[in-house]
Amino acid sequence: MTELIPTPQTGPIRIALTGTAIQNSYMELWTLLDWVNPGSVGTEKQWKKAVADPLVAGQARGCKEEERLKANDTAEVLRDKLLPLYFLRRQVWDRRCVLRMN
Fold first, then answer.
1. Which member of 30, 36, 55, 59 lies 3.0 to 4.6 Å from 47 by CB, making a disulfide possible if both were Cys?
2. Would you list the domain boundaries of the chain?
3. Alpha-carbon distance 11 to 75, whole Å?
4. Using one digit for the tens of pLDDT, what is the confidence trace for 53-90?
5. 46: pLDDT confidence band, cut at 50, 70 and 90?
């Protein structure tokens, strides 16, 4: 745990474990992020408007080019800026994690 939490924390520490939250639904991802750090990613309504709706629209069959581009931009921000702040991903090649999980 010291690798995950390098500095002393005050108050409750919340950790969420999930397999494929982002593959299930974008609102489920908001629920996990909001539970771990309440208010840090906006309200449910704000998340839906800024993240979930653009991603869903841009992935829809027959979406407009503008919607697809907005979805790509949104996905890049999630992947590169937001999720690394909250998610520690186990890498397949990291045998230490695999051994600990068995």
1. 30
2. 21-101
3. 31
4. 999 999 999 999 999 999 999 999 998 988 888 777 66
5. very high
Backbone angles phi, psi at 28, to 5 degrees: -65, -40
C-alpha to C-alpha distance for 76 and 78, rounded to whole angstroms: 5
In this structure, which amino acid lies at residue 95?
R
Cβ neighbour number for residue 74 with a 10 Å cutoff:
19
pTM, two decimal places: 0.71
Question: Which tokens hold the place of 62?
Answer: 């027959």
Tokens of 83: 């999720």
Side chain identity at residue 14, one-letter code: R
Q: How far is Cα 43 from Cα 51, in angstroms, rounded to an integer?
A: 11
Q: Looking at residues 89-93, what average pLDDT do you find?
A: 62
Write out the two tokens for 71: 């979805």
What pLDDT is attached to residue 101?
46
Q: What CA–CA distance (Å, rounded) separates 21 from 23?
A: 5
